[in-house]
Design the sequence.
């Protein structure tokens, strides 16, 4: 890459580089550059396309029937590659819909129809005269809100180009205007050089380049002089006169002429340290920052042999082509059937509808006389002369591109760098067979872009389908995992329930066995106590009371009932093993009651036995004492009574003991 200092030295001595190819068509600029820029009357209707730049379309923020003021924003967006459009004058929105676009295809696009009210009333403006103290990002935001896009080429958003993150060495201001007939930039530099200088200063403040270069073709001496006067006090600004060669105004070609650097085919000027703006863009930048005005009008050249008074005019964006052509006047033979070309003769296109509006990139309306221009409708076979290759400023092979584009072999056309073509028309200009080569290239590019769009749509649809499928698969796996975990949880709960039932049954069985053993011990002790009482009774008295025998029988019956209930409880627990958790509490309570009853029976039996033994031991002693105190003749009778009384007391004690045991057992059962 050429060194910066070396470039500056060559610029100071006006020793420039050259780009390959190029042609020298007759410029015919003298037709329209002799009079000052005029302002035509307001059109009856304005058609404002929502998109007038490279990038995305904004969102309409007005409705039909709304009254708007001059400079009021009509669209808005948050997308970085979109800029708004504004009302060129005050009036009423009569329609929002499709209207013919300013495009070679002549297709319709979303547009706003504005009916002016004739008052031309401005909205509130916010000028920023002290822009040097403002933040860079704030200035970029102002440029975006003003709707400024490139006014000399394809309409690239200015705020994007000005917000470069790379180091910029050269800020190039393009005043070449190399296309024949067009003089809008020439007259703008002559009449508004100082405001263009203001725009240059603002862009320089934002971008911070090392040097500023203003390039003007040498066929515009008045413009060169005006810009030299305006930039006289800028030591880092270089006004350079460039030889008149078409297309010297192309971005890549002009960078190569001024710096000797070539922009990569798939790169941008900022990749080699340069950035370029048109003089019309500089004027709009100054208007937006210093005056607060959005981009609502531009200078348009009205020229050609079919125009009565060729001139340059300030045309409001959205003004129909027919309105401007009528203002310039048509020659009598041209009034019935006139061909109108939007742009110059090299890169312009024929206007198919007179209601086609002026947009931000419209710089010329050309109305030629019959046979003034090569018609291009006399196409003949290619003779392989290679004149097109010699004239191509991009060093392409136009002949090969033509064959592949015509045969719709788009892959091969791309392999010959189709998209490096700047569509300057130099190849078609020198073609002896009058082949409209640029038209074939444009059709091929359009077809390729459509294929890319369809492919991108298909890929996006595929991505959405795969994302949906992945989401459904993930949801399915998640459901299956939940079902698996739920099944495992149920299985674990069932196992735990079975284990708990088995444990409960074992505990119940153990408790039942313990209760049965306790009842058996109680019965054994009761039987032993009964036997001891019987032995003592039979030893001391020959007779036993009938009540005592009955009490013993009832005690046995109660013990048998207790054993039966314990056995029944054990059988019930075994039979209802599945419902063990529900019956645990009742079974445990019954076993506990049986155990308590047995313990109480043992305690009462022991107590009764103790009382009975004490009675048996003490009663004979009392009887003997009484007998000793009685009369001698009554000893035998008294002794007999004493023995009977002792036996009765023993029987009663035993009966009381059994009755108490029976009551305790009944209480335990209840």
Sequence:
């Amino acid at each position: 890459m050429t060194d910066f200092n070396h470039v500056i030295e060559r610029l100071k001595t006006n020793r420039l580089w050259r780009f390959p190819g190029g042609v020298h068509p007759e410029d015919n600029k003298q037709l329209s550059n002799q009079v000052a820029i005029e302002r035509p009357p307001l059109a009856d209707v304005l058609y404002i396309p929502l998109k007038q730049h490279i990038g995305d379309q904004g969102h309409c923020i007005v409705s039909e029937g709304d009254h708007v003021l001059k400079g009021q924003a009509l669209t808005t967006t948050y997308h970085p590659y979109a800029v708004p459009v504004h009302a060129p004058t005050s009036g009423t929105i009569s329609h929002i819909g499709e209207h013919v676009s300013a495009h070679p295809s002549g297709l319709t696009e979303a547009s706003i129809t504005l009916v002016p009210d004739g008052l031309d009333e401005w909205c509130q403006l916010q000028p920023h005269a002290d822009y040097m103290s403002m933040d860079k990002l704030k200035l970029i935001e102002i440029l975006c809100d003003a709707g400024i896009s490139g006014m000399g080429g394809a309409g690239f958003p200015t705020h994007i180009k000005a917000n470069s993150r790379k180091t910029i060495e050269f800020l190039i201001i393009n005043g070449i205007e190399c296309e024949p007939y067009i003089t809008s930039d020439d007259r703008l530099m002559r009449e508004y050089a100082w405001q263009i200088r203001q725009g240059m200063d603002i862009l320089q403040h934002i971008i911070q380049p090392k040097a500023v270069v203003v390039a003007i073709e040498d066929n515009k001496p008045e413009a060169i002089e005006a810009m030299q006067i305006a930039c006289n006090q800028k030591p880092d600004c270089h006004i350079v006169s460039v030889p008149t060669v078409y297309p010297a105004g192309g971005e890549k070609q002009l960078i190569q002429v001024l710096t000797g650097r070539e922009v990569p085919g798939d790169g941008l000027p900022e990749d080699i340290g340069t950035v370029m703006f048109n003089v019309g863009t500089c004027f709009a930048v100054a208007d937006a920052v210093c005056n607060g005005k959005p981009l609502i009008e531009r200078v348009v050249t009205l020229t050609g042999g079919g125009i009565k008074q060729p001139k340059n005019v300030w045309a409001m964006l959205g003004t129909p082509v027919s309105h401007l052509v009528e203002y310039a006047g048509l020659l009598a033979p041209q009034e019935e059937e006139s061909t109108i070309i939007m742009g110059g003769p090299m890169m312009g296109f024929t206007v198919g509808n007179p209601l086609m509006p002026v947009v931000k990139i419209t710089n010329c309306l050309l109305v030629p006389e019959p046979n003034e221009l090569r018609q291009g409708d006399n196409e003949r076979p290619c003779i392989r002369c290679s004149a097109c290759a010699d004239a191509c400023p991009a060093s392409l092979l136009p002949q090969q591109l033509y064959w592949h584009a015509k045969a719709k072999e788009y892959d091969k056309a791309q392999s010959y760098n189709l998209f490096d073509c700047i569509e300057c028309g130099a190849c078609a200009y020198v073609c002896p067979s009058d082949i409209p080569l640029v038209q074939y290239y444009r059709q091929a590019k359009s077809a390729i872009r459509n294929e890319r769009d369809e492919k991108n749509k298909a890929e996006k649809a595929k991505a959405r389908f795969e994302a949906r499928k992945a989401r459904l698969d993930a949801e399915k796996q998640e459901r299956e995992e939940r079902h698996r975990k739920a099944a495992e949880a149920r299985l674990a709960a069932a196992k735990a329930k079975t284990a708990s039932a088995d444990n409960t049954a074992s505990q119940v069985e153990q408790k039942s066995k313990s209760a049965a053993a306790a009842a058996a011990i109680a019965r054994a002790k009761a039987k032993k106590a009964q036997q001891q009482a019987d032995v003592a009774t039979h030893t001391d008295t020959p007779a036993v009371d009938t009540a005592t025998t009955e009490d013993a029988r009832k005690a046995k019956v109660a013990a048998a009932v207790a054993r039966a209930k314990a056995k029944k409880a054990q059988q019930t627990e075994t039979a209802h093993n599945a419902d063990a958790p529900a019956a645990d509490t009742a079974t445990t309570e019954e076993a506990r009651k049986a155990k308590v009853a047995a313990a109480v029976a043992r305690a009462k039996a022991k107590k009764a036995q103790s009382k009975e033994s004490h009675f048996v031991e003490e009663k004979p002693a009392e009887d003997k004492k009484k007998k000793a105190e009685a009369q001698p003749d009554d000893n035998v009778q008294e002794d007999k009574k004493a023995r009977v009384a002792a036996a009765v007391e023993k029987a009663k004690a035993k009966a009381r003991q059994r009755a108490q045991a029976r009551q305790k057992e009944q209480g335990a059962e209840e």
